[in-house]
Design goal:
There is one protein chain. By secondary structure, the chain is of the alpha+beta class. The protein has helices spanning 60-75, 103-143; strands at residues 8-16, 22-28, 31-34, 37-45, 53-57, 82-84, 87-88. Strands 1, 2, 3, 4, 5, 6 and 7 form a seven-stranded antiparallel β-sheet that branches. The protein is flat, with a radius of gyration of 21 Å.
Length: 144
């Protein structure tokens, strides 16, 4: 494997709690290694990790998808001290859920995720409606 990151196609800077230093994540262009094997290089600076790391996929797209999983995994032990867009504990990198357990399993997981999203949406709508109702009640009391 080459030891150079190559051309950087994506970069993200994360703030560190209780520090002026930051963590820099850089992602390079996926490279073909062999038939049906691609490697996407990435580097994390500021956490004491050295060198270029790689996420592997059967094509360039899968390598790009899996690099996010690899970065999420590398950042997870440091998650509490990192923040992105001002939200502590959030790096903006997610666990990638692939189909390595089969499509039927993935469909079940996707349905569960969809149910959770719908549930959270309903919960948030109720919360907003309750706040609006309380605000209306406060306006009526002030007018009296």
């Amino acid at each position: 494997m080459p030891t150079q990151l190559g051309r950087v196609i994506a970069r993200r800077e994360l703030a560190r709690a209780h520090s002026r230093s930051s963590v820099l994540i850089e992602i390079g262009i996926p490279r073909r290694r062999a038939e049906a094997e691609w490697a996407c290089p990435y580097r994390i600076r500021g956490l004491g990790q050295r060198g270029i790391r790689y996420a592997f996929g059967v094509d360039a797209v899968q390598a790009l998808q899996l690099v996010q999983q690899a970065i999420w995994r590398d950042l997870k032990p440091h998650q509490r001290e990192l923040s992105w867009l001002g939200e502590r504990g959030w790096t903006g990198f997610y666990r990638f859920y692939g189909i390595n357990l089969g499509q039927a399993h993935m469909r079940r997981v996707e349905k569960a995720i969809d149910r959770e999203i719908a549930h959270e949406g309903r919960r948030l709508k109720k919360r907003v409606a309750k706040k609006r109702s309380a605000a209306k009640g406060n306006r009526r009391v002030r007018r009296s």
